[in-house]
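Tokens for Delta(24)-sterol reductase. Go.
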Amino acid sequence: MSALWSVGAGLLLLLLWVRHRGLEAVLVHHRWVFVCFFLLPLSILFDIYYQLRAWAVWRLHSAPRQHAQRVRHIQEQVREWKKEGSKRYMCTGRPGWLTVSLRVGKYKKTHKNIMINLMDVLEVDSERQVVRVEPLVTMGQLTAHLNPMGWTLPVVPELDDLTVGGLIMGTGIESSSHIYGLFQHTCVAYELVLADGSLVRCSPTENSDLFYAVPWSCGTLGFLVAAEIKMIPAKKYVKIHYEPVRGLQKICEKFTEESKKKENSFVEGLLYSLDEAVIMTGVLTDEAEQSKINRIGSYYKPWFFKHVEKYLKADRTGVEYIPSRHYYHRHTRSIFWELQDIIPFGNNPVFRYLFGWMVPPKISLLKLTQGEAIRKLYEQHHVVQDMLVPMKSLEKSIQTFHVDLNVYPIWLCPFILPNNPGMVHPKGNETELYVDIGAYGEPKSKQFEARASMRQMEKFVRSVHGFQMLYADCYMTREEFWDMFDGSLYHKLREQMNCKDAFPEVYDKICKAARH
């Protein structure tokens, strides 16, 4: 009883303090208070609900039976939109705050919302080594489902809450992408409801133009209702080798060298300053030295990027065995390194042991509760950007990031980019090695100004024939956007499938110059 009185008194004091300071002031300057006391518990409840739901659906085998019925309901909504005169563009009815992207989708308020309740794993085909899933299945849900069956995906994008639909309509990458390419390159078929309400299946051999045009289209060609994704056999551990490297030229040389080695199952780099990095390589294995097993995903463990930094500070190499699922979601608990700006003491051992099991807060809930003041603050003083550039331009790209942004750590992730049709492909006629440069945090560059600095970055990326991930803030003009991306197939299909009255052009949906 005394414990309850203490908790009650503590909450009362907290509420009085919030009232005294003002809710907006607390949310902006002491956001950790709101996150720790409200969003973390709410995130736990959110997770429990979806895990129980997924378990119940699979145990009752209801997902495959209900999938066709749900798709028919989507088709009916589209046909109803046509009967109403096709007066507004269509979009999914999923609330904008539920997406992992930090961008707020204002178009949801003006477009016809089509409700799409598709969040189940439909089938695991071991013979074909393919898993068929609905678009709202998350990476956390899918790896938890496949790993006990002895399977995993070739490319498992990092954060638990990333959805299959978002990774196809946008893009996804992981440290295995130097072998398998982007997430879209591991997909073998898509099923979509088109602007006329018809259901089509597309693959490299069936409706191939549509298959190659869907990635990066951000839902502007049709509604994704299912996808078939390749699987590979899972192994228990990732044997990971940490190597600190100093000097920008040496960092780029070492990273390029390791990225070209197909014997490396995984390659990743964390850049802690302009000339200090740790390059990590990993291989899948079922055997492990017990003394070197590191269950880095456990709630009480240090955040991964902080753990990696220890090798840099000690100036030593190291080898560890990380359980595979822990490795796939190694940056999830700290949302890469974004959580240190929200909960500054989040990596403190005391906090980890007492409250680490509740971390991280849901990105969707952070968006929902951020308010206009925080949104503007983040927009002007915070960057979350992934730029995809040819590996041969890595050194010049890092120098540009340093001058224009000066944000560290920087994430380096290599990927192979095949010369397939679609919006994103190499400049030449051959497959080329690229690298994702991820900058997340508060820029330290004195001349940083959100719009001007990002336009400068976008100009540089275009000059080296690179690409900007479309989940992030984009400041390009329409001409600049289509200079970066190849719109030939995309525009051809929008014309052929009568998409122009049904869906906005991808530029109008995601670029700031079009949305403001």
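The chain has three domains: 1-61, 65-233, 239-372.
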